[in-house]
Amino acid sequence: MHIRRNHITTGKPVVRVALALALAAVLAGCSTDKMKTGSIGSIGSSSKGRIEAPTGYDLRSTSAKFGKAYAANPNDKATAIQFASLLQMEGNAEQSLAVMRKLAISHPKDRQVLAAYGKALAANGQFGPALDAVRRAQTPEYPDWRLISAEGAILDQTGQENEARQLYHKALDLKPNEPSVLSNLGMSYVLSGDLRTAETYLTSASRQQGADSRVRQNLALVVGLQGRFDEAERIASQELSPEQARANVTYLRSMLAQQNAWSQIKAQDGKKQATN
To answer: Repeat TPR: residue ranges (predicted)?
Structure first.
């Protein structure tokens, strides 16, 4: 992938591959088979005492702990939502959705459950049902900024960037300087290739009180996508072990170099065809 100073010159699929680094950093070695922007956020983010993205090595043990609690009482709302959130952090999106689907059946009118269910659907690529669930959870007379931001994140993943950004700004009107919404807005600009604007929003998000690990890792990713690898590694090292931060940046370098090689080959093939 050829990187100019401010913009990515390739299409969204390549950008989405690069964005997997943000998720990989959070998971700290856990495997996942789906590439996500991370903009929808933790499915338990609307609950009190929400889980923040782990920055150490305790994700699996915490997930196992909540898994046991969930098995003992699968209808407990708080436990199910937090277990589903941890499963999603581990990359187990399908299992996370199964947990939330069962909870939605037993709590069909609960706004928090519907919101979390919608985010789990989106994480599995089921964007139509996800939008329906999130919108059903919203109440126009008392709009929830979290649901507005989640709706925007879903629209972003279906290519409706302008509509998504309008929703992010609406959410910011309700919750000024909220780091998760600023991060969503920044990642929206990453998807469209405007890295300078993305960095501006992500830098602002990282400086807000309450900014979690995912926000700063998204910032590290955007800095790295602009070729500032040393700076990206320094930012990532605030959240990860030096080895993990270095591994992520090394992978990013490799991915960008490989994409650039393919771009050069395509360019050469195009020149050959033009001269024939």
So the answer is: 145-178
Superfamily of domain 44-176: Tetratricopeptide repeat domain (1.25.40.10)
Q: Is residue 152 within 8 Å of 171, Cβ to Cβ?
A: yes
What is the reported pTM?
A: 0.73
Q: Which of 48-57, 161-170, 199-208, 228-237 has the lowest mean pLDDT?
A: 48-57
The CATH code that applies to domain 1-35+179-271 is: 1.25.40
Q: How far apart are CA 193 and CA 81, in angstroms?
A: 33
Total length of the chain:
276
Ranges of each domain in the chain: 1-35+179-271, 44-176
The residue among 276, 220, 272 whose CA lies nearest residue 251 is 220
The pLDDT assigned to 267 comes to 58
The 3-class SS string of the chain reads CCECCCEECCCHHHHHHHHHHHHHHHHCCCCCCCCCCCCCCCCCCCCCCCCCCCCCCCHHHHHHHHHHHHHHCCCCHHHHHHHHHHHHHHCCHHHHHHHHHHHHHHCCCCHHHHHHHHHHHHHCCCHHHHHHHHHHHCCCCCCCHHHHHHHHHHHHHCCCHHHHHHHHHHHHHHCCCCHHHHHHHHHHHHHCCEHHHHHHHHHHHHHCCCCCHHHHHHHHHHHHHCCCHHHHHHHHHCCCCHHHHHHHHHHHHHHHHHHHHHHHHHHHHHHHHHHC
